[in-house]
Amino acid sequence: MPRPRNRGQRIGAAAVASVCASAAAWLLLISTPAAIGEGNAFKNASRCASEGDVSVDGVSGDDAASGDCLRTVSARVDRTEHVQGRKTPSYRLYVVEADGDKGSATLGGDPSRRPVASRGADVAVTYWRGQIRYVDLAGGRKYTHADPRDDYKVVAAPGLAIGLYGTGFLWCWFWMTLHSRVAKRARPWEIGLPFVAGVGLTVVGGFAPWATDDMGAALLLVGRATAVVAGACAVAAVFLRRRGRGDETIDVTPSVPTEEQHFPGRILGEVPYAEHGTHLMAADGYLATTAGHSGVAHRRVVPRTLTPLRVRHPYWSDPSPPDLRGGARVLECEDDGVPVLVVTHRAHMPWVVGALTPRP
């Protein structure tokens, strides 16, 4: 019998899983901790002292020069400009400090809404590491787009999503590599159900960092969602497995075509007419393989010695065409003692059985 032809699919699934794992590891183990560290440094930063002065709140003037402390200066609003290219409204705020220095920062929202950023208004801008991190307006404090406290979400969300998406391909690789060696019958849901669950968790992973306040809460949310999805998959798997129990033989009523029918299908086995084409042609007492959809090119007639035995579901060892894998049926036959398989879609199997069944 032919050997399984899922080697390419295994390699593809393993490659996608490896790429997703590498990308997720970089984002979650390197980029996310760096972003969290910078956000914590900003939240824990102290106020700067004047350069050369004695330390204030543990921060000396030398630290102020390096930018590792919060430096707040008085300024007035010079102008604002609307920023294009974002889904949410934002604007660019230009300020002139008391000593004449100029600065700018991008803020979310509309300058005409509270807190209002009107031209000539007195404000206080706070720098950290050379960038304006927030602005104190008359109506309250507004953080700029340079606020690093939530920057980890930008990398953690895709990291979790990519990692969880890769687990779906990892499952496909595991199933085709290990389980398919011992599992006889090929059940599409055994791969499809976990993969769909992985896609669902991908959405949760991409949403979790934005719905929580810290990385620990995001991971907890993903963990709870994983437990719920795993439980639902277990219940569904039990139901689907019980429904698929019983005799693997499928009752198919032969149907004799009134005219020649052409449809996708293949014949597999150690016989000369096997692997000849990708389509079958059936008629009354006549079955042939052909290389084209029209049924004209390179047709080869199946001999009368081919005897049908039973119709069954596909096995993992059956190299069925990809476009038939979801609804494929397999007709076990014998040609002078040689096992032969006829693989086609379940809708076309009655024509195959009818073409091979002798009529009285």
Overall description:
- This protein has 360 residues and is of the alpha+beta class.
- Helix content is 38%, strand content 25%.
- The chain has six helices and 14 strands.
- It has helices at residues 7-43, 61-66, 151-182, 189-211, 215-243, 349-356, and strands at 71-82, 90-97, 102-108, 122-128, 131-137, 140-143, 249-250, 261-269, 279-283, 286-290, 300-301, 306-312, 328-335, 338-345.
- The strands form two sheets. An eight-stranded antiparallel β-sheet has the order 7-12-13-14-8-9-10-11. Strands 3-2-1-4-5-6 form a six-stranded antiparallel β-sheet, with no helix packed on it.
- β9 (279-283) and β10 form a beta hairpin.
- α1 (7-43) runs antiparallel to α3 (151-182), α3 (151-182) packs antiparallel against α4 (189-211) and α4 packs antiparallel against α5.
- The longest helix is centred in the first third of the chain and has 37 residues, at 7-43.
- It is elongated and about 100 Å long.
- It starts with 6 loop residues before the first helix and ends with a helix.
